[in-house]
Amino acid sequence: MLRLYDTASRQVRPLALRQPGQVSIYLCGPTVYGPPHIGHGRATLVYDILRRYLTWSGLTVRLVSNVTDIDDKIIERAARDGVPWQEITSTYEALWFEAMGSIGVERPTDVPHATDYVDQMVAMIEELIAGDHAYVTADGVYLAVETVDGYGLLAGQSLDEMLAGGGEREVFGAGNKRHPADFALWKLSKPGEPAWPASFGDGRPGWHSECVVMSLDLLGEGFDLHCGGQDLRFPHHENERAQAVALGKRFAGHWMHHGFIVDGEGEKMSKSLGNVDSLVELAQQYDPRAYRMLLLQAHYRGPVTVSRDNLDASAKAVARVDGIARRFPHGTAAADESVLDEFRRLMDDDLNTTGAMGLMFDAVTRANAAADAGDQAAAEALAAAVREIARAVGLELHGESAVPAHAQATAQALDQARAAKDFATADRLRGELQADGWTVETTRTGTTLRR
Ligand SMILES: [Zn+2]
């Protein structure tokens, strides 16, 4: 049974499942107004690793991750570029999934879009107003946090403690609010801005209202796990939770937050990585598996330094594991169970991937040593365990003829583009694969790649 640190209770505790055998997860997704950066890659890789491990363990995982396709930043970007806001969101959403595919992140089970849920958000806000948990002002609708039991649970501070810290405007922003910590559920639109009709005034939803509506709609009350970066803990997650509590609904049972990306040089990421700024550039300049390995070798709650040296070291580590796929290409032996038992024990202990990678590299060494000593049976069993661990954490091994994960992901994106009749994108993706040396065969059932 997986035990995970829970931000709400501040302890490592078992991830309790609402339905046996099924895991329901909500991950706050991107606001699509620019290319995904390297930190976004950590956000998706951490939960891709979790999802694959849970799936490998025999559970059915439903991962819902939204796209925020209406936001002040999108409106600003559209105005700056002089294009409709829908063009900004469709361009950067496509780029998001292309970038995530390039680092081997599987698409979420569901990708709800905020703009498809505005009616439900309006209905929720009406309910909050009717229940005296929200109020209408000259610029929007705000949630009255003082009406919410236990506000500050995720922040780890009561309202009084937050205010005692001072700097109210810096922490909570200005506005026509009754209490500094009250937050916008709805923003009334200014002329020329996108607007949706509502009884309390035409406008657009606040970010915190999107996730609570989409998560409860798709996963239902009391879903198992809500995830995101440490920076989302407060105010975003606190405010999602506050709305659910005010509505009298059971929200997430467990809260998981991952650590930041830091730059060891104290420089801008783009400098220390040799002008790599976006995730797409990282995947082009390094083995895309190196970033996954770098994260696996760290703890998900701690900071990770993304530097050229660290990525190079991780790429070498991946190459060592590839060596097992080449030396033991058949893989029919049963995996060494003692290694897999230890792997499960480590992963179930708050996702100790650092320990799990240590175990895997130890098994690589032992497999090679056993083969050198002529003990082929032991070598094959250890090699099989290495393959299993790699599979469980989503690390695609490159043997003689394997198609690497990033090429498979591009082929999958190509199929999706063709299905959506987006032939410009399909042609571009086909061109990328051909430039990488693949023969691309497109049939009615999908795309296959050959060298
Ligand atoms: Zn969210």
Overview of this protein structure:
The chain is α/β, with parallel strands linked by helices. The chain is 47% helix and 13% strand. A four-stranded parallel sheet has the order 4-3-9-10, sandwiched between helices. The structure holds zinc ion. Zinc ion binds next to helix 8.
Summarize the structure.
With 451 residues, the chain is of the alpha/beta class. The chain has 17 helices and 14 strands. Helix 1 crosses helix 11 and helix 7 packs across helix 8.
Helices and strands in order:
Elements lengths: L2 E4 L4 E4 L7 E6 L10 H19 L3 E6 L6 H10 L3 H18 L15 H13 L3 E3 L3 E4 L15 H6 L3 H5 L10 E6 L14 E3 L1 H13 L5 E5 L3 H14 L8 E4 L2 E2 L6 H4 L6 H7 L3 H8 L7 E2 L2 H20 L9 H12 L4 H20 L3 H17 L12 H15 L3 H13 L3 E5 L2 E5 L1
Helix pairs in contact: 1-11, 2-3, 3-16, 7-8, 11-12, 12-14, 13-14, 13-15, 14-15, 16-17
Bound molecules: zinc ion (ZN).
Zinc ion binds next to helix 8.
Name a few traits of the molecule.
451 residues; alpha/beta; four-stranded antiparallel beta sheet; 17 helices; 13% strand; globular; binds zinc ion
Q: Determine Rg (CA atoms, Å).
A: 24 Å
User: What characterizes the major β-sheet?
Assistant: 4 strands, parallel
Class from secondary-structure proportions: alpha/beta
Give the N-terminus to C-terminus distance in angstroms: 42 Å
Helix share of residues? 40-55%
Low-confidence stretches: none
Give the overall form. globular
Number of helices: 17
Strand content of the residues, in percent?
Answer: 5-15%
In total, the number of strands is 14
Provide the residue-averaged pLDDT. 91
What small molecules accompany the polymer chains? zinc ion
Give me the oligomer status.
single chain
Strand order within the widest sheet?
Answer: 4-3-9-10
